[in-house]
Queue: 2 jobs
Job 1
Amino acid sequence: MRALFLLLLLAAAASAECDGCLVEGKCLPVGMRVEGQYCFADGLMHEQKAMGAACENSFECKKGACNEGACVNVVQKGKGWWASIKEFVYRIFRIRVVKRI
């Protein structure tokens, strides 16, 4: 019983020095992703969330990003990252792409 108390006391003292998550003696900042988990503001590591799951931050999602409170895929199927960025810029500036024959 006394050993458990000392262990909890040491863990509390170590976490007081760390503003993120204490993992294997290292302090990870909030938002750091490690092997399918992320450091959250509560000081604990949490499993990353699947598409469609509720979220507050993009680091919570396995793939993609957090948008309007849910994990979403930011790259549309069949398109690469660069093609999605170009399409986004074209929409912002209302650029029309004319295909040459």
Job 2
Amino acid sequence: MARPSTPEERAQMVRQLYEMQREEAEREHAGRNGANAEADDGEPVEPRTIADVADTFRRWLYFPHNDLGVLNVSLGTAAANHYDTTPIPAGC
């Protein structure tokens, strides 16, 4: 890839690189979201509610004052990154 010399060429290169990364990520994650998810052993994974996930986290991890804000932000960020838009980092 030739080095871009104008702002327009740089912007085009960034768009191309972003698109290539997005396509690669889609290939890597194909079939691994929602009801189509599989465990590492290839067995289907049953969808869980957020309440079920929170109960599991409470059972195995310590959350001071029962504050699950960190879990909610993490789950929301992970879910948002499955949309066909630019991913939004947590905390923005």
